TrEMBL record, chain A:
Oligomeric complex that consists of at least the alpha, beta, beta', gamma, delta, epsilon and zeta subunits. It comes from the Eukaryota. This is Coatomer subunit zeta. Its main location: cytoplasm. Transmembrane segments: none annotated. Belongs to the adaptor complexes small subunit family. Pfam families: Clat_adaptor_s. It is a peripheral membrane protein. The keyword Secreted does not apply. It comes from Erpetoichthys calabaricus (Rope fish). One of its GO terms (cellular component) is COPI vesicle coat. PROSITE patterns: CLAT_ADAPTOR_S. The gene is COPZ1. Keywords: Cytoplasm, Cytoplasmic vesicle, ER-Golgi transport, Golgi apparatus, Membrane, Protein transport, Transport.
Automatic annotation (TrEMBL), chain B:
GO terms for biological process: endoplasmic reticulum to Golgi vesicle-mediated transport; intra-Golgi vesicle-mediated transport; intracellular protein transport; organelle transport along microtubule; protein secretion. Pfam families: Adaptin_N, Coatomer_g_Cpla, COP-gamma_platf. GO terms for molecular function: structural molecule activity. This is Coatomer subunit gamma. Keywords: Cytoplasm, Cytoplasmic vesicle, ER-Golgi transport, Golgi apparatus, Membrane, Protein transport, Repeat, Transport. GO terms for cellular component: COPI vesicle coat; endoplasmic reticulum; endoplasmic reticulum-Golgi intermediate compartment; Golgi membrane. Belongs to the COPG family. Its main location: cytoplasm. InterPro entries: ARM-like, ARM-type_fold, Clathrin/coatomer_adapt-like_N, Clathrin_app_Ig-like_sf, Coatomer/calthrin_app_sub_C, Coatomer_g_Cpla, Coatomer_gsu, Coatomer_gsu_app_Ig-like_dom. Residues 1-11 have a biased composition (Basic and acidic residues).
Amino acid sequence: PYTVEPSLYTVKAVLILDNDGERLYAKYYDDTYPTVKEQKAFEKNIFNKTHRTDSEIALLDGLTVVYKSNIDLYFYVIGSSHENELMLMSVLNCLFDSLSQMLRKNVEKRALLENMEGLFLAVDEIVDGGVILESDAQQVVHRVALRVGYLGRKRIKLVLRIIRLTCNLL
Amino acid sequence: MIKKFDKKDEESGSGSNPFQHLEKSAVLQEARIFNETPINPRRCLHILTKIIYLLNQGEHFGTTEATEAFFAMTRLFQSNDQTLRRMCYLTIKEMANISEDVIIVTSSLTKDMTGKEDIYRGPAIRALCRITDTTMLQAIERYMKQAIVDKVPSVSSSALVSSLHMVKMSYDVVKRWVNEAQEAASSDNIMVQYHALGLLYHLRKNDRLAVTKMLNTFTKSGLKSPFAYCMLIRIASRLLEETDGGHDSPLFDFIEGCLRNKHEMVVYEAASAIVHLPNCRARELAPAVSVLQLFCSSPKAALRYAAVRTLNKVAMKHPSAVTACNLDLENLITDSNRSIATLAITTLLKTGSESSVDRLMKQISSFVSEISDEFKVVVVQAISALCQKYPRKHSVMMNFLSNMLRDDGGFEYKRAIVDCIIGFIEENPESKETGLAHLCEFIEDCEHTVLATRILHLLGKEGPRTPTPSKYIRFIFNRVILESEAVRAAAVSALAKFGAQNDDLLPSVLVLLQRCMMDSDDEVRDRATFYMNVLQQKQKALNAAYIFNGLTVSVPGLEKSLHQYTLEPSEKPFDMKSVPLATTPINELKTELTPIVTTKLPEKVAPSRQDIYQEQLSAIPEFKGLGPLFKSSDPVQLTEAETEYVVRCIKHTFTNHIVFQFDCTNTLNDQLLQKVIVQMEPSEAYEVVHYVPAANLPYNQPSSCYTLVRLPDEDPTAVSCTFSCTMKYLVRDCDPNTGEPDEDGYDDEYLLEDLEVTVADHIQKVLKPNFGAAWEEVGDDFEKEETFALASVKTLEEAINNIISFLGMQPCERTDKVPENKNSHVLLLAGVFRGGHDILVRSRLALADGVTMQVTVRSKDEIPVDVILASVG
């Protein structure tokens, strides 16, 4: 067949790695990499090929990978090489923008790790079993509905940490 | 209070990842607090997060511990904390496959999915469908239908997408929700539109009429969602492809119209669809190419990448269509994204002129080490295409390839290079020695067994025919000393070929083979012993049969025949002629250059199409005594496309019979056909022996009937015959909806097109890698020669193609390719005639006004020779 089978199953995986290439989040939606070992090998490969450049898109293992990095985080969305690259891009942008809003523009490893539940819920709202569920970051943030009070507590924690660090320095 | 936070901080440590040293057992221990009253939402949430984090890292949970944690978690449904509840849904989904009895949460989820909290409803549906089976799905069917048409988009989307996931398992249930999905498709929300369209297509995709209707509705009504548009374009192009729809079809107009959509995603999808349509002509390509050209200068890397990748594909088939973009592509050569730069260069290599080749090659060598293997393969492909276009550039490219061969790279990449070099050697005889030298160097340090054995095979074939064959012996024998069993065995076979062809090398080859007889591996020892003994006879015919031209039988077929032979003790020796031939030449399978998608090599020799037919036919009692299946033809259509009944025929040739297999499809949904046969009236002395009817031919379920015909004994040269065919059957009208047939039926018939049996049906292709040796082996006992004038043929290529397709024989030694600017050519063909005799044809062609052809035929029996000459005349 010359043409792509019409299907809603667009996304093969969503990954977030840290600046050592370690997995912070990985969700695979099909059996391209059935075992944890194969997944980790793929992630290693992907990180090696992308972490030095900010090129946004690559072809790896016969798959299209769109990516984005920010401070110490690397975001990846993976689809078939026949997939519309811009569709994959819209998923990546939605994920990044949602997190950026939820983390108050503070998209870095520490903040992300303190809000893992927010990340889990956001990805769950963006992709369901490989189908793009929502591509509008505003909607995603609204549906995740982490209450401000909750994030607020994290903020207090942050402030306290800063105070403590300052005391130590003094 | 402050103290507490402090403590927590120390727990997470100053390290950057608070989850880094999580212990599964400790987390599961902590999960006991789920049972405490009152529930502490914040702590419980934290523990659930840890559990999901561990699962996400790939930590293995045993069934017992997972089930225990799952059951504890169910208690958290008592809390009204929103985030906690949402995390419960996630836990359910993550644990659906590891914990037992997950269905215990069904009622809680059903409550949430129909409750007042909109924030719960969507995720609850998704979690519920994750743990539901077909029976339970029927229990919640009413709620699912309501949810699909719910006015809250997240609820409707969740229900639609979950339904889509359920189609695989419960098609019949989900099918009943088509009306609801239809209603959802007219929603204002763009995602709901998209999901509804996806579900509708999935439910209807096997019903072409329904898909066409659906496309009509949606392309007219105009959707808002760019995703839905992309989906529509894919459905439309799939339909165009299936129906061979022309470019005047309204579907094509729709796709072309999408080139003017305001969303780049849709424009790109449309352009890509047009480019990928089969038989697309320059005029239809032009508008797609111009939008792709615009995208080449987009600030978005993904869009530039998508555009240049698609242009690269266009350039493979229609390089002239892309020349207009040359300037834009030149600008992309320096793109910081190396993938884009590589694609731009390889596209330019296809569209540019010969003069730009050197510059582009230099440019690409500057960063070839930075790109991924996939793109290196793209580069190799471009070079390979280039060699065919500009054969004069082959030394530049051979150098480039040999450098690439020395670099690091994976199997696919190396294989592409080796394929390309081998292609070179075969196309350009003058580059043979340089090419072989590069390959020799490569196998000195090659970790890929498949490639090493392939190259050794090539060395054995080509090496002995070079001016200095002795220089390859060292490279080959080194492999015997250093490599794995498979490579050693291949090296032994290659050595034997040198010994067989070059008398002065024979003594040294025998010495080397002697050493191989001491090898630790059986296969290597066996081969060495075998070749040693054959070579010592010093007989050309033996060399030809056992060293140059190997077995031509099908391997699974040989296995079966031998097994059969051992089951029935017999005085007669095993007859190789009773084994079906291999349908595709085993030795020279030219691997297509289609990497990108990594292919896993098959573990076992897969049975060929003919092996499968042999199996199917031998299961029919009437065909038991026919002997081995000699040849199965390609299917011949006996009806026009889009008629009431579609019939195609496959001709199976046996030693003295032909079985005609008629694959019939009934496309009328209000008819059931029974006792279907195809009656055949031969024009010659062929005798119809038996009809095997297809008992039932219901709507849209293909079934086969067979006609057995005996070949005439009296005149063995009467190989061609025309049959007029009529399909006869009993019709029972039936209810199109239920398929329930009427009690009574009536006889009817349907006239099919005539079917031809030609000389090609009596000959099976066989590849003789060394034709000269085979020619000597068969000898001139029954050689006959005749000259023919082909007045209507204007070129040598045309003459060659005609002869090959007419005789159905295998061209050898690449003689099917005519070198440029030649007026004469020798075509070498090999095959096996029905009954098992090798048949060889040497055809000298000369181009004057028409083409004059002198045909020399050899075989070990007279009949095949006469048949060939009679049919050519």
